[in-house]
Amino acid sequence: MSKILIVEDDVAFCTMLKTFLQKKEYEVTTAFSGNEAIPKIKEDVFDVVLTDVRLPDRDGITLLEEIHKSNPKTQVIIMTGYAEINMAVNAIKQGAFDYISKPFNPDTILQTIEKALHTEVVSANTTQKENKKETPAKTKKDANHAFVRGVSDASKKLNEYVALVAPTRMSVLVVGDSGTGKEYVASSIHKGSKRSEKPFVAVDCGAIPKEIASSEFFGHIKGSFTGAVTDKVGHFEAANGGTLFLDEIGNLSYELQVQLLRALQERKIKPVGSNKEIEVDIRVIAATNEDLSNAVKEGDFREDLYHRLNEFTIKVPPLRDRIEDLMLFANHFLEESNVELDKHVVGFGDEVLEAFKKYDWPGNLRELKNIVKRSVLLSQGDMITLDILPNDIAYASQNESKTYGLFKNQNEQELILDALEKANGNKAKAARMLSIDRKTLYNKLKQYDISL
């Protein structure tokens, strides 16, 4: 029976987690502070330690050092809230096995524990040496295929919709602002489908000149027009058996919309200059940052094509609506940038974290990725500092209508009630939204005589 130590100052949560893991046949010990955990670590050998990244008397990183001194083979899993994700990532760099964001699904923690139990422990130094031995191509490929699922309510809903529609044959319309990751959502749907081993062909409809659009989509035969010196396979045929992703579908000309509708209805295409029809079996996922329903009303987009593409709609939320995921994405882009630029930046300074949270991110994930990459390039040390950020981000003023932080000149009671309502009464989540710890929230609830 594997032995687990839980180090968590939230007694109720700690007890609940202990009961859950005991039912899964683990031997579980608990500690409610770092100082309480250290004697237990020295007296006993644990297979896994689950520890909160921030404890009343110390942080999880210093506890990690004590664990590895006493029992080098013990795997450490960091439990963290949004505000401490940067610390958790640093802990992994110093030898922690993984981190998991609160609130987490019970199945998720079980999977992480199982992986930890079946993974041989290596020191942080060994890991760094092994990473340097990896070929750049392999490392870059791994980084590009990594996925950040997100812990915000908006991300969870998005992931649920992707998982729901992926195994079906339905056409999907992905809607969202520029830079929100619509192509990644489409790719995730493809990977979760029965067509995952077949091609995924992405087409930017706004980048195709009108004059050659038919050739790009349906192909052409040699000599069919001036410049057609060889046969060309179009996007439909290239995606045969798999998924065709049509990005910015609203940019298609009306004439091409007619051709596209016919191809989707008949599942046949005819290359330019050819009399032979080719049967195709494709799933279409389209994306747009426009209101296609309004374009239909104004006559700019065919209604029959709209309904053909819109069997299921997925709305990708902007980054400002999934702020709990901000540092998850930032750290992911940091790792990608380190690989691409051959740098070794560890993380973000505290002032940078505050600036990131205050900024509205109109360019969404694309903007965040570009800013992180630029910052990694300019960074001369281990941490990204405020002075290398663009001024509009470094000195962004908090939008008071969107913040839940408690400030002296604001109505605290109203903010607390609003946060609790948004969190459906979940005090831990409300505290994170208010950027305060649970103890402070409890004191405020008592001060304003708020009972739930």
Draw up the topology in text:
Elements: E1 3-7, H1 11-23, E2 27-31, H2 34-43, E3 48-52, H3 60-70, E4 75-80, H4 85-93, E5 98-101, H5 106-117, H6 124-133, H7 136-144, H8 153-165, E6 172-175, H9 182-191, E7 200-204, H10 213-218, H11 235-238, E8 243-247, H12 254-266, E9 268-269, E10 278-279, E11 283-288, H13 292-297, H14 303-309, E12 312-315, H15 326-341, E13 347-348, H16 350-358, H17 364-378, E14 383-384, H18 391-394, H19 412-422, H20 427-433, H21 438-447
Parallel strand pairs: 1-2, 1-3, 3-4, 4-5, 6-11, 6-12, 7-8, 8-11, 13-14
Antiparallel strand pairs: 9-10
Helix pairs in contact: 2-3, 7-15, 15-17, 19-20, 20-21
Q: Can you offer a commentary on this structure?
A:
This protein is of the alpha/beta class. It has 21 helices and 14 strands. The strands form 4 sheets. A 5-stranded parallel β-sheet has the order 2-1-3-4-5, with helices on both faces. A 5-stranded parallel β-sheet has the order 7-8-11-6-12. Helix 4 (85-93) links the parallel strand 4 and strand 5. The longest helix is centred in the C-terminal third of the chain and has 16 residues, at 326-341. The model is unreliable at 122-146 and 399-410 (pLDDT under 50).
Short description:
This protein has 21 helices and 14 strands.
Main beta-sheet strand count, sense and barrel state: 5 strands, parallel
Structure summary, number of beta strands: 14
Task: Report the C-alpha radius of gyration, rounded.
Answer: 26 Å
Quick check: average pLDDT? 82
Indicate the structural class: alpha/beta
In the predicted model, the low-confidence regions spanning at least 5 consecutive residues are 122-146, 399-410
Count the helices. How many? Answer: 21
Question: Largest sheet, order of strands side by side?
Answer: 2-1-3-4-5
Distance between the termini: 40 Å
In helices, the fraction of residues equals: 40-55%
Shape: elongated
Classify the beta-strand content into a percent band.
Answer: 5-15%
